[in-house]
Design goal:
The chain is α/β, with parallel strands linked by helices and about 230 residues long. It has helices at about 10-15, 15-25, 95-105, 120-130, 165-175, 195-205, and strands at about 1-10, 35-45, 55-60, 85-90, 110-115, 210-215, 220-225, 225-234. The structure holds flavin-adenine dinucleotide (FAD).
Length: about 230
Amino acid sequence: MQKNLTLKLLPSEAASDTTIKDYIASSEVLNPSSVSGYIINKHSIDARGKQVWINLSVTAFVNEPFHQRELQSFTFQQVEKAEKKVIIIGAGPAGLFAALQLIEKGIKPIILERGKDVRARRRDLAILNKQGEVNPDSNYCFGEGGAGTYSDGKLYTRSSKRGDINRILNLFVHFGAEEKILYESHPHIGTNKLPHIITAMRHKITECGGEFLFEKKVTDFIITNEKITGVRTG
Ligand SMILES: Cc1cc2nc3c(=O)[nH]c(=O)nc-3n(C[C@H](O)[C@H](O)[C@H](O)COP(=O)(O)OP(=O)(O)OC[C@H]3O[C@@H](n4cnc5c(N)ncnc54)[C@H](O)[C@@H]3O)c2cc1C
């Protein structure tokens, strides 16, 4: 049987798997050995008072085998020879997630990015920080990964007006983020991890036949019969 429970624990208790299982057992008057495992659905920190508490909402597996969390799966198609192609301007989050969604739908994305790939971009940031020289196309705002790539990757939005946030969180996990971003109330990817995740996304996009063109700044649209049919780059 599976039971949904809410636990309020001290930070040291919440860090111990055995203690969490003991709490689950005691709150349901069970033998601890009957709890085969649990999945955390929500994790939040209450630091309003002197004593910090961890609030956990869990699904406990009682008297039945434990099943790991089911992660969302994605089917990326081979699009190299796809009839439909879409030009994406910019390899920021919007461009990368759009490219992945197009690939799921069998459409080939061609991404034009004015900056450099996420690794080469780091070298331009070092020059910026040490020598104060700004490369107008490769800096904290421009380049693969977009504006927040070299920040610490907090994912605090809970807006549901513009689509499914869980899909985005699951995509991040699919490409290497820690699973805990799926249940933490203030998920945080980490500056050191973001560039690797962005690189993994690019590898998947190109492996499926999508194209990346770096150092291609779009300067104009080509309009034919009132339709955008292409772009000009500078
Ligand atoms: C310093 C900083 C820290 C941030 N930290 C966080 C954070 O921790 N958590 C969080 O959720 N959000 C954070 N953000 C906000 C987040 O970065 C943005 O919400 C997000 O990047 C917007 O994504 P986007 O794809 O719409 O645009 P952008 O990220 O701006 O991406 C646009 C891309 O298009 C490229 N481009 C622009 N013009 C052209 C052109 N003419 N031709 C070709 N390519 C072009 C750019 O180089 C860029 O790669 C931060 C933003 C900044 C500036």
